[in-house]
Amino acid sequence: MVKVGLTGSIAVGKSFVCGEFERLGCYVLDADQTAREVVAAGSKGLAEIVEKFGPDILTSAGELDRPKMGAIVFADEEKRKLLNSIVHPRVFESQDLWIKDIEKRDPDAIAIIDAALMIESGGYRRFDKLIVVWCEPAIQLRRLMSRDGLSEADARKRIAAQMPQDEKKRFADHLIDTSLGFEDTRRQTQDVFRRLKSFSVGHDV
Fold first, then answer.
1. How many CB atoms lie within 10 A of CB 37?
2. The domain 2-198 belongs to what CATH superfamily?
3. pLDDT tens figures, 82-108
4. φ, ψ for residue 113 (rounded to 5)?
5. What is the pLDDT of residues 46-90, one digit of tens each?
6. What is the rounded CA–CA span in Å between residue 61 and residue 16?
7. What is the C-alpha to C-alpha distance for residues 190 and 205, in angstroms, rounded to an integer?
């Protein structure tokens, strides 16, 4: 089994790349989905967030108000670190259980976990290989504004809150550049898949 981390900054095309890896037969887990589950209504994770941030971050239905929480942590690095210290350990535990389950069922699997903050959290160290998805900064900005309906100023603020792309790329075993669109990205993803398959049978490349 090969355990693979996949990361990249906001709006660089990670979801498309993950979809391609799934199509090629890889198992893919979205850390965002796991993060939602560990702070779901009634969870210990959500209870700890309320304890630290107050009940105002809940919706009327008792769920985490994600837009409100996002606005708080994007504007304050210390609060972002506090939130991550609550969420990340629970996410890691859930991911590890997912990996163990796949390994039992399919010992030759390629298991990929997609997480935007994998490098920042240190979680990338748990994997055999790390893929960093990236694109040219002007394209990233345009995609983020279009996808989330943000002003240029707000989009730049969100991008600036994350580790710079060039820094993330230095951690990578494999890079996938999505700047030139779907077909070129698909070709690169297939190439990385072949490399991961080679590594899985003991021929590191």
1. 13
2. P-loop containing nucleotide triphosphate hydrolases (3.40.50.300)
3. 998 999 899 989 999 999 999 999 999
4. -110, 125
5. 999 999 999 999 999 999 999 999 899 988 989 999 998 999 899
6. 32
7. 15
